[in-house]
Design a protein that fits this description.
Number of strands of chain C: 20
Helix content of chain C: 25-40%
Number of domains of chain C: 2
Low-confidence stretches of chain D: 1-8, 14-23
Largest sheet of chain D: none
CATH class of the domain at 102-295 in chain D: Mainly Alpha
Mean pLDDT of chain D: 80
Order of helices and strands of chain D: HHHHHHHHHHHHHHH
CATH architecture of the largest domain in chain C: Roll
Number of helices of chain D: 15
Radius of gyration of chain D: 22 Å
Strand order of the largest sheet of chain C: 15-14-16-13-17
Largest sheet of chain C: 5 strands, mixed
Low-confidence stretches of chain C: 1-51
CATH superfamily of the domain at 102-295 in chain D: MetI-like
Mean pLDDT of chain C: 84
Oligomer: heterotetramer
Largest interface: A-D, 68 and 52 residues
Number of helices of chain C: 16
Distance between the termini of chain C: 22 Å
Chains: A mainly alpha (about 325), B alpha/beta (about 650), C alpha+beta (about 575), D mainly alpha (about 300)
Radius of gyration of chain C: 24 Å
Strand content of chain D: under 5%
Structural class of chain C: alpha+beta
Shape of chain D: elongated
């Protein structure tokens, strides 16, 4: 049990650190956030009545008081789930905006990340099983190169070729707008059609890390005595490859799965921005473009919490999959 | 447990059977440019227990892997055949010897056919049981795997069978629910053995099955194997570097050197009449520690590098003291002589001359005679000056797991003294507390109570600078010489550091000082070693460098932690001799830590036997070993493999 | 409809299109005009719902560009909210000031009178109904203005810093009382969109009210909206419904960014859009020369602003040399794609404000590039050139290197600054182009921590502001304190006196006399050096509808949506539906 | 950007280690590391590719036909004639930009790679060698930095920053990218510090610093170099990404800004696929060269792999 408790403790600690980091970063910026914000609301070269600034400050609930009081208020607000009002989408709250964007990203990232993991792990395992063969060479060198392609560049090329030139897919958006978002097949079909290119942009590089990881781990586990013993046992190749070699080799990838989520979320920012996909990445990009600090901060916090949660899940899953780490649980 | 009707335990006469179970014909295996196994032929008969003896690099494990067709890439069988004469049978029913026994070449047989043969007919136990069990599967699953793959047994009967198998190797059936990491090394090895016997195969390959285990456990497992083999009548090929073990349990022993089998004969006759000089050299490394006079021998030099092309003649010739001209020109082939086979021109000539029995006292190689054998030793011990005194030390370790605090008494009330020019052996199993004691002597660890005194210095109270200064007086020799030398530095650099730090030797004086050290440990000419990196030296040479480094500050005390256990048998005595010479000549007090009573017997003046943190026996070496009072000491003594002792029933 | 004022979020998107952001500044300056216009009476007519739009001589649908609200537009039809969606077709002001020629068109107001420079009386239109059927009256007007008083955050024009009261008198008259002479405030007063009292009086927090029903008096009502598109439907109850010939307007979100938007534009998927397009002749017009058109009328002046508290910028002769020294045509062609016009030294936007040009000023006040003349002016003023070719100050010491600050990422401006850098290097003046972030740029600009930068001024129809913002001493502050708009620290008694006079001048003739003198100050004293006019982006297709404003028929600025909607009519040659 | 900064994505090389490297090292007058890396076929290809990029970067002024910032040319020209890759929408020569872009990328890779490696080494060494509470705290920091999504963090920090430009990007990459390297190095130190030869060095009278730098560090060479290559690759990728997002200074000439401009001013519209494609390919090739070099790096601190 100790293993799981320590993982949860780590999660709580990192969560606190992330929340605090999120508090600190915006406060490191020079200048008065209220001034910036009011200026933004009013337009660049307008002279503003100081009273208006004050009014806006009150209206938006901009922080007041000592830094410590602000921190306490902030923590309380976070616990309440109150992240303030978005500057860009005023008077809508940050939470409202995130609630709208989150499902898009969860689906996009979820699907691509899981698919990438599965494809990558399978390819990596296959390459390792036939190591030094043609397939392995192609996969290894291929992923060495493809792995270096920037996400956003792939997205640009895809959009250029498949949307601009061939017009097979829509260039942008999460749905066409003709169909209002609803729980209908028509809408889902439309959303999937719009999601293919963004997903593909992520999917081209998503498996690379897993291919490398799985191949290297499995080359290692294939050389391990238990795999050789499994062969000597006269087990079928499939069983040896899956239960003995791959089963152990996949363990580091499980931890990597959560960490990889952070990477793919990074990619999502660019891909969503390029495709105008209405998810968290796009929202974050817009928040940055518009200096919408509350929104930006909260998205960063959500992203971090998402990765932390995924990490916690991975750790727990790891504990379940690898009996060695929960040694204490037994004795 | 049902017995094979047709095969009476131990009733197999290896020579008598008409056709072999397994025959290896001109087998060669190569790894890239290295020919690891060269033109090996032998036969194995039903129920035979054959030992395959060889030092590291001799190709014995590669040969084993080749037999099972488990060579890791880039290894490949370049020539020859491995014929299997037992056939693959289906179903559970095991009938008598088949009327039709068609041989099948394991090197070319199809994957699927091979798979069917595996485990049902031939199984194996790998060297390191730490890694041969899948860490993420329970013991039960790993048994079930083979049972369900090869038989129709499922569910409860399978579980029952697994229980039986575990009991067979003296493990409680409840362990089947465990994961490998929850078992001790010995238990894992027993599981691996039970697993190998799960389908009652006709042939089991045991590759160093007990290496790395404590001697007592080692002994118990080997006894278990032998008993089971007699009971079930499977054929065994036992691969080991440990001549004592192999000789003791095998019916027949094959000795491998540089990729070739150089001798093959029955164990009983091999002890009496080893034919190949190499075999004789190996045998020389063994002795009965309880004997009145003990002397052990070693073979100077190192095995050849098989990746180097164009080597001619007998590859052992450079290390052979009996070598004659033809040895350097022509490689001998394995041919029948005496009571077995050997590949040696000298032996061949001797047998051809009709007088196979050469002078038995002429052991091959250099001889190192145990000091205790010299009658003048005893009294001198008393006169030696006391250098370090350990008095009533006690050490308790606390480990916390969650809320549970476990306390282990690593050392309890131990006292001893180290004297100049004297070797004190600290003997015990792993976990007996000998490492903790050694760390106290070096000042790395402090006792909870008691004292460690070096002259006027309270070692147990040293810290920081004082401790650093103390290290000038106490030096270490490590178990694994390769790990003890920084691979990134040359020998010269490594030796220069203690000279600079402790002896203030600098500038032009440095190189002569290093050369002197090297010469003193027998690495000469020294200049050829200074620029070398550790990996360019052999194990024995590396250990000499480690010794040289320990000598550099001119210490009063040397703590040698199992300094020979990682070395090949044929060169162990060489290092012991070096240590002995240095201790005597330079009046160094040595704490010699070992689990091996034979080496203690040979090297040490005094022996301390440590068991569970307590000193169970101590005294002059000869007295302790010949007149062991403590049961544990006797157990340790019994566990020493001794090819010369009478075979156990 | 993507005129920048409508979509501040989109426009202020510095990462997206560095070209578009500038328009924010321009837009905010596109504040309306002085001058009066005759009353115009419109007779609202009810219209039946018979047959297809086409059959009735209607354009069935216009495809529009962005509709504001950022990239994830949320329903918000509060016309005062900075984050609103398109409301210009739904809510109407009292008067529409023509952004191109600054004429005033009566709208919900039929006429206005300055009873004195601090009191404005407006007659409101009768017979107008809100889209929910309730009648519109002067009470709604008074309510709307007083609403802004309660929500100062939404009063971004700062009306209530000048107003004292707004009261309705009867059903068709509203009186505005000001603290002081405020004639030039008319453009700001008339800019306010009217909202119905019967709905808004119940609203407690106006700033946070999203006005989902969008009940207005305008020609269009909101039909549907999601994050991808907004559909506006013709309001059959509109008071001048007979002039509205477009049945529906379909706004599409430019979610894919500028590139996708440009692609759609070039494919003819927009009938009306406002965006920066590089090489527009090739990428847009050439795709369908018959129907694809654009018109980029000039907006605010973008000028060289110098720190007048420092030498040599405090020397009028030095500044005068600057007017000759800079190759505006190179900036226009290199940095601005040739889309813009070079600016007049007078501070007016030519040719739209030609009527305001002082008679003595030649060539519309545009100064040609003449490096030799610049050198001569400098030499005459006592600036010598050192042996290394560097210009020496009047004290004979070499001039220091001057910084030229341009907000980071405003690439066309950076390119323009580089042209200036090159031009000044020819005179022996070393300029270091620096690109701090926009925030730092603005802060430095405010506190006077700069040598030179690009300032934006004028461009709107509020000619008072066009001079008062950059030059009024009330708009400045000492170095180190934040100056609202007079960043250059121009302090001139004569300018201030003229501005005061202008604020009081009741009619255009009187205003013109004062403005002519201000122009003269610009030309003689050279407080700033106007370089080019920012362009207003406007692309349209004449396939379905005709009657768009353009260079040949500049009846309104591209931002005067209401005027344009009354002029559009179906293209008789259009064969689609 | 598909791997965290400092993490090296490469397959384990199964190519047999050449036996004659040590001899070659002895014979050659080149630095030994070059010879060692040269011995591996893949890293040799990587070195050649990297060499080309460095050559282009160093001699950019000679190789580029035009000043990459000059906007004197006709806009959006297709490839051909005086502009082999055409011109941008602002009339800049694309080939010259590509050539100068190599400079930016290599400088970023070099500087950020060095800083990241340095921080990673410092944190990793301190945590691994000191142990105790220092290690606990640093390990927590490392793990924290590992789980915080790097790109969003970079973006957030960059977005809040009052300054823009290459310096900021390098700074952001440096302070966000060290975690992986630190973790790997800490783990390595933990195993190395318990080696017998470290104990032996202590008994040979070596001080703590000397043990770290003379005894442990040489055995971490391959890790440090691999870490550096990984960090450099990560930094180059991140720089391009941040520039592409517009978080850099769009007037710097780099592959990232080229893509930013290609995306923002009509490369797709005018069909200038080279403008769009070339910078991305250049990034990928440069990163590939670093990855390829990494194949040979293992041999650096393992003399065993150099000679049998």
């Amino acid at each position: 049990m100790r293993y799981f408790v320590s993982r949860v403790m780590f999660f709580v600690l990192t969560l606190w650190a992330a929340v605090t980091l999120n508090f600190i970063i915006p406060r490191l910026q020079p200048g008065d956030p209220a001034q910036t914000m009011v200026q933004r609301l009013a337009g660049q070269s307008e002279a503003i009545d100081p009273a208006a600034i004050r009014a806006v400050q009150i209206m938006l609930g901009l922080p007041t008081g000592s830094i410590f009081e602000q921190y306490v208020d902030y923590l309380q607000a976070v616990v309440r789930g109150d992240f303030g009002i978005s500057y860009t989408y005023f008077p809508y709250t940050v939470t409202h905006m995130i609630a709208e964007a989150l499902p898009w990203t969860i689906v996009l990232v979820g699907v691509t990340h899981v698919l990438g993991f599965v494809i990558g792990t399978l390819l990596g395992a296959a390459a390792a099983w036939k190591r030094n063969g043609k397939f392995d060479t192609v996969v290894s060198l291929g992923s060495t190169f493809i792995g270096t392609l920037p996400f956003f560049w792939i997205a640009l090329i895809l959009i250029y070729v498949l949307a601009f030139t061939l017009r097979w897919f829509p260039e942008a958006g999460g749905y066409s707008g003709e169909i209002d978002p609803a729980w209908s097949w028509a809408f889902f079909g439309d959303a999937i059609y719009h999601g293919i290119l963004p997903a593909l942009s992520l999917l081209i590089t998503a498996p690379i890390g897993w291919i490398m990881g799985m191949r290297n781990n499995m080359v290692h586990t294939l050389g391990e005595d238990y795999t050789r013993l499994a062969l000597a046992k006269g087990l079928r190749q499939r069983r040896v490859a899956l239960t003995y070699s791959a089963r152990v080799a996949i363990l580091p990838n499980v931890t990597g799965f959560a960490l990889g989520l952070g990477t793919i979320l990074g990619g999502t920012v660019m891909v969503e921005m390029i495709f105008g996909y209405p998810g968290m990445g796009k929202l974050m990009f817009d928040a940055i473009s518009n200096r919408d600090y509350p929104l930006m901060q909260t998205i960063f916090l959500f992203t971090t919490i998402g990765v932390l949660l995924a990490n916690l899940c991975a750790d727990i899953l790891y504990g379940v999959l690898d009996p060695r780490v929960r040694r204490e649980a037994q004795t | 447990m049902t017995e094979r009707a047709s095969l009476e335990p131990g009733a197999v006469s290896p020579e008598g059977a008409g056709s072999p179970l397994l025959s290896v014909e001109n087998l060669s295996v190569s790894y890239a440019a290295t020919r690891a196994v060269r033109d090996v032929s032998f036969q194995l008969h039903d129920g035979e227990f054959v030992g395959l003896l060889g030092e590291s690099g001799s190709g014995k494990t590669t040969l084993g892997n080749a037999l099972l067709r488990l060579l890791p890439p880039p290894g490949r069988i370049s020539e020859g055949r491995v014929m299997w004469w037992g056939s693959a049978r289906t179903g559970e029913a095991r009938e008598g010897p088949e009327p039709h026994r068609a041989g099948r070449d394991l090197t070319t047989i199809g994957q699927e056919d091979l798979r069917r043969l595996r485990w049902r007919e031939m199984s194996t136990v790998f060297q390191s049981s730490m890694n041969s069990l899948n860490p993420v599967l329970t013991i039960e699953t790993q048994f079930r795997d083979v049972i369900e793959e090869h038989t129709a047994m499922r569910g409860a009967p399978a579980r029952q069978r697994i229980g039986q198998l575990l009991e067979m190797v003296m493990l409680d059936p409840s362990y089947m629910r465990f994961y490998p990491h929850e078992l001790s090394g010995g238990m894992k090895q027993r599981v691996a053995l039970a697993l190998a016997l799960a389908l009652r195969p006709r042939f089991v390959l045991l590759d160093e099955p007990t290496t790395g285990l404590d001697v007592i456990v080692q002994r118990s497992i080997l006894d278990n194997v032998r008993a089971l083999q007699r009971e079930q009548g499977f054929a065994v090929l036992l691969i080991s570097h440990d001549l004592g073990t192999v000789m003791e349990v095998s019916d027949r022993v094959m000795v491998m050197y540089a990729g070739k089998i150089v001798e093959d004969q029955r164990a009983s006759t091999m002890i009496a009449e080893p034919m190949h000089p190499y075999t004789r050299g190996l045998l020389g490394a063994y002795a009965d520690p309880r004997a009145r006079e003990v002397e052990i021998a070693y073979i100077p030099g190192r095995p050849p590098d098989l990746s180097r092309p164009g080597q001619r003649g007998c590859l052992f010739a450079p290390r052979c003291q009996e070598a004659i001209d033809v040895c350097r020109a022509e490689e001998p082939v394995l041919s029948a002589m005496g009571q077995g086979e050997a590949a040696c021109h000298v032996a061949e000539a001797a047998y051809a001359a009709g007088d196979g029995r050469r002078d038995q006292s002429a052991r091959a190689g250099e001889v190192f005679t145990a000091p205790a054998g010299r009658t003048d030793r005893g009294p001198r011990v008393e006169r030696r000056q006391e250098v370090l005194a350990v008095a009533g030390v006690h050490k308790r370790y606390r480990s916390r797991r969650g809320l549970k605090v476990t306390e282990v008494d690593a050392v309890q009330d131990v006292s001893f003294v180290l004297r100049a020019g004297t070797v004190t052996a600290l003997v015990g199993q792993s976990g007996s507390g000998k490492t903790t004691l050694a760390r106290m002597v070096t000042g790395v660890e402090r006792p909870d109570t008691g004292s460690v005194t070096f002259g006027e210095l309270r070692v147990d109270r040293l810290r920081g600078r004082g401790l650093k200064a103390y290290r000038r007086h106490v030096q270490l020799v490590f178990q694994d010489p390769f790990a003890a030398l920084n691979p990134a530095h040359t020998i010269g650099y490594t030796l220069s550091r203690p000279l600079i730090n402790h002896q203030d030797v600098t500038g032009a004086a440095l190189r002569p000082a290093i050369e002197e050290l090297l010469e003193r440990v027998g690495l000469s000419p020294a200049s050829t070693y200074i620029e070398k990196y550790p990996h360019q030296l052999s194990g024995g040479q590396q250990q000499r460098v480690v010794v040289a480094r320990a000598l550099a500050p001119d210490p009063e005390i040397i703590v040698a932690d199992e300094p020979i256990s990682m070395l090949d048998v044929s060169i162990r005595a060489e290092i012991l001799e070096l240590l002995d010479t240095l201790v005597r000549e330079r009046g160094i007090a040595m704490l010699y830590i070992t689990h091996d009573l034979l080496s203690a017997r040979v090297l040490a003046d005094e022996v301390l036997v440590l068991h569970n943190g307590k000193l169970v026996e101590s005294g002059a070496t000869l007295e302790v070993i010949r007149g062991a009072r403590d049961a544990y000491t006797r157990q340790l003594l019994d566990a020493i493999p001794n090819p010369f002792a009478t075979r156990r029933g | 409809m993507k005129i920048v004022k409508e979509v501040p979020v989109q426009a202020d998107d510095p990462l997206k299109s560095p070209w578009r952001r500038r328009t924010v500044a321009l837009a905010s300056l596109l504040v309306l005009a002085t001058g009066a216009a005759a009353c115009q009476s419109g007779s609202p007519t009810e219209e039946g719902n018979k047959g297809t739009p086409k059959a009735q001589g209607m354009v069935s649908q216009l495809n529009m560009g962005d509709f504001g609200g950022g990239n994830a537009p949320q329903r918000n039809f509060n016309p005062f909210s900075p984050t609103r969606l398109v409301t210009d077709f739904t809510f109407e002001p009292l008067f529409v000031v023509n952004a191109y020629d600054c004429t005033v068109t009566p709208w919900l107001g039929t006429s206005y009178t300055w009873e004195n420079p601090a009191k404005l009386v407006v007659k409101t239109r009768s017979g107008v109904t809100w889209s929910d059927g309730k009648p519109f009256s002067a009470k709604d007007v008074a309510f709307t203005y007083n609403l802004l008083k309660t929500a100062p955050a939404l009063d971004t024009n700062g009306l209530w810093s000048k107003l004292t009261s707004v009261t309705a008198e009867g059903a068709d008259q509203v009186t505005f009382a000001f603290k002081e002479a405020s004639v030039p405030t008319f453009t700001q007063v008339s800019d306010v969109r009217m909202v119905p009292e019967h709905i808004w009086s119940a609203v407690t927090d106006v700033a946070k009210f999203t006005n989902n029903e969008a009940v207005g008096t305008g020609p269009y009502t909101v039909k549907s909206q999601n994050t991808q598109q907004l559909v506006l439907e013709r309001n059959p109850k509109y008071w001048q419904a007979d002039k509205i010939k477009v049945q529906r307007m379909m706004f599409k979100k430019a979610t894919g960014g500028a590139e996708v938007d440009k692609l759609r534009l070039s494919r003819g998927e927009y009938d009306w859009n406002a965006m920066f397009v590089p090489d527009i002749e090739k990428t847009y017009v050439a795709k369908d020369p018959e129907h694809n058109h654009y018109w980029f009328p000039p907006g605010a002046s973008i000028s060289l602003f110098m720190n007048l508290t420092k030498a040599p910028f405090n020397d009028v002769e030095f500044r005068r040399a600057m007017t000759f020294a800079i190759d505006r045509d190179e900036i226009k062609n290199k940095a601005q794609f040739g889309y813009v016009e070079t600016a007049s030294q007078t501070g007016l936007v030519m040719p739209g404000q030609k009527a305001w040009l002082a008679p003595g000023i030649a060539n519309d006040g545009k100064v040609p590039y003449d490096a030799a003349q610049a050198k001569k002016v400098l030499a005459d003023a006592g600036y010598k050139t050192g042996p290394d070719g560097k210009l020496l100050g009047k004290d004979g010491k070499p001039l220091p290197d001057f910084s030229y600050k341009v907000p980071n990422g405003w690439v066309d401006w950076i390119q323009a600054a580089q042209v200036i850098q090159k031009n000044l290097a020819d005179l022996g003046i070393t300029v270091d182009v620096q690109t701090p972030s926009a925030e730092v740029h603005d802060k430095d600009r405010g506190i006077g921590n700069f040598d030179m930068f690009f300032g934006v001024h004028g461009g709107g129809c509020n000619i008072y502001q066009a001079f008062q913002h950059p030059l009024g001493s009330s708009q400045t502050a000492p170095i180190g304190k934040v100056a609202p708009t007079n960043f250059i620290r121009w302090k001139d008694a004569k300018t201030d006196a003229l501005l005061e006079e202008l604020a009081k001048a009741p009619d255009e003739a009187a205003q013109k006399t004062v403005v002519h003198q201000l122009e003269q100050i610009m030309v003689d004293q050279v407080p700033v050096v106007p370089l080019w006019y920012g362009a207003q982006w406007f692309e349209y297709r004449s396939e379905k509808a005709i009657g768009w404003p353009n260079a040949k028929d500049p009846y309104a600025g591209p931002g005067n949506q209401l005027i344009i909607m009354t002029k559009l009519r179906p293209n008789p040659d259009y064969r689609g539906k | 950007m598909s791997t965290p900064i400092g993490q090296v994505a490469k397959p384990i090389d199964s190519e047999p280690a050449p036996g004659d490297v040590a001899a070659a090292v002895r014979r050659s007058r080149l630095p030994s590391w070059v010879v060692i890396l040269w011995a591996n076929r893949k890293s040799r290809i990587g070195l050649i590719m990297l060499g080309l990029f460095i050559f282009v970067a160093v001699f950019a002024p000679l190789l580029a036909t035009h000043d990459p910032k000059v906007t004197d040319f006709a806009q959006s020209l297709p490839p051909g004639g005086a502009h082999p890759l055409g011109t941008t929408a602002s009339g800049q020569d694309i080939l010259s930009q590509l050539v100068y872009g190599a400079r930016t990328s290599i400088v970023v890779g070099l500087v950020a790679g060095t800083v990241v490696t340095f921080i990673a080494l410092l944190v990793g060494l301190t945590a691994g060698y000191l142990q105790g509470w220092v290690d606990e705290v640093l390990s927590f920091l490392i793990n924290l930095a590992l789980v915080v999504p790097v790109l969003p963090l970079m973006i957030t920090i960059a977005a809040y920053s009052p300054v823009r430009g290459l310096f900021l990007i390098i700074f952001v990459i440096s302070i966000t990218g060290w975690a992986w390297g630190a973790r790997v190095k800490r783990a390595q130190i933990l195993t190395l510090r318990s080696r017998d030869y470290i104990t032996a060095a202590r008994f040979a009278g070596e001080g703590r610093l000397r043990i770290i730098f003379a005894e442990i560090m040489p055995n971490m060479m391959s890790l440090v170099v691999a870490g550096f290559l990984g960090a450099a690759a990560g930094a180059i990728g991140a720089e391009a990404g941040l520039e592409f997002l517009g978080l850099g200074d769009p007037t710097t000439v780099s592959w990232g800004t080229m893509l930013y401009w290609a995306n923002n001013s009509g490369a797709m519209l005018t069909g200038q696929w080279i403008w769009l494609g070339a910078p991305g390919l250049a990034i990928a090739l440069l990163l590939s060269s670093l990855t390829l070099i990494n194949f040979g790096v293992d041999a650096l601190s393992n003399p065993h792999l150099r000679e049998r």
